[in-house]
Amino acid sequence: MAPPANRRFGFSRRAQNATFLSYTAGVVGLVVGIGLVTVSIVKPEAFAGVRTAATDATEPMGQATAAGRSYSKNFFASIAGYLTSGREHARLERELAEAKVRLVEAQATEAENRRLKRLLALKDVEPDVVASARLTRSTSASVRRFAIIDVGRKDGVTKGMPVRSATGLVGRVLEVGATSARVLLITDTESLVPVRRASDGVPAFAQGHGDGTIRVRLINLGINPLKKGDVMVSSGSGGLYRPGTPMAIVTEILRDGAIARVLSNPSDTDFVMVEEVWGPNEPPPPLNPDAESD
Amino acid sequence: MPRLTSGGPPPSRRRINRAPSPVLAHTLPWLTILLGSMIPGWLLIASAPVMPPLGFLLFIAWRQLRPGLLPIWSALPLGLFDDLFSGQPFGAAVLLWSLAAIALEFVEARVPWRNFLTEWLLAIGLIVSYIVLCLGLNNLAGAGAPVRIILPQIVISVLSYPLVGRFVAVMDRLRLTPITVLR
């Protein structure tokens, strides 16, 4: 049946008004939407309060699903372990992976120590873990990479704190609610972390690539010294991220950098640690002339 | 013989002298969509956009199955709720869901024929434009994400839409199950 040419819904004034009003309401929604989007583009933190209130309110549900997620993952991992070469093999592999990361961390620390020894009286403080948390939720249907952790202002979490897991950097805190916080993952395209190669300290920037990988951009242009398998650790330049946190492993070389894989894949990460914002130590006081003459 | 003594069919199958619960009939579509907005985030900690925008899929599916059950303005509150959890710039869902609702209403007034294929094609058009426009809004807000990262999500969403439609049909039957006893 072809639609009638005259689109009036009968002669009922009431029906006509109802149709008109429903379209008007739709257009009102459209206009409100345009207004909200404009505000959130101009001032992205404008709705942080509402968002964190909503995540706070749904946090118990998020915790329950996070627990369920990790149980089901463990369940499947156990079955997979039996099917491949047994549980023992899986455990050994996990230990090996952890040991590899530890080794890289140790190398990074070693390089860091060498650098520090060249400077005078700079002491490296131990990382201060503010809270340990669970990744409860993520924006898995959006192109932005946010995750929610189940600690917030009550646990001492503040904006900007770096978040890491046992295997590497995860992201940093973006919005803080009372009992939950929103984390910008390092795979987000707006996340930019200063990094260096673990072995010799070639400086670079690591930016999220949007698809779960990391784009490493070298700071010094010229011959690309990166090789497949190089591990990038955070360099701590500019503060915020503690130097030497393992971050990504290079998988593909490009002309001016590389594509790297994240070491701490958030989907495999059960628990994360929220660390104190790292600030570079103050420069040593200038030597006085007497000491200079000695 | 045991059936007679056990009191006949289960309560949901007794139809005589019963009507659907008006509360259930009116709130179930809203509840499923609200839940659909939250579920993708709970399922996994994703490192790329992989989950279909379930809230939006349910919203179109309900509107396609029962035009007029959800008013056009329902895009405003439902979109607001979706924005709280989706990670898109706040207001993106309000804007795009309203657009989709108006577009659906517009098309359905002009094309009254209904079959699986045309409904799916229309939904595909809406889903693809929704995901692409979400990317556009994110990039306007400074994300700078390339188009290729949404391709898997588009494929998954388009293929999962018929399943969402089936789910909505099941929910619709549940919604209209006669459970309240008439006096």
From TrEMBL, chain A:
Ligase keyword on record: no
Keywords attached to this entry: Cell shape, Coiled coil, Membrane, Transmembrane, Transmembrane helix
Span of domain Rod shape-determining protein MreC beta-barrel core: 140-263
Keyword Coiled coil: yes
Protein's name in the database: Cell shape-determining protein MreC
PANTHER family with a match to the protein in the record: CELL SHAPE-DETERMINING PROTEIN MREC (PTHR34138)
Coiled coil: 87-114
Family under the similarity heading: Belongs to the MreC family.
Pfam family name, one: MreC
From TrEMBL, chain B:
Superkingdom as given in the UniProt entry: Bacteria
Keyword set includes Membrane: yes
Keywords: Membrane, Transmembrane, Transmembrane helix
Segments crossing the lipid bilayer: 23-45, 90-108, 120-138, 150-169
Protein name from the UniProt record: Rod shape-determining protein MreD
Protein species of origin: Novosphingobium indicum
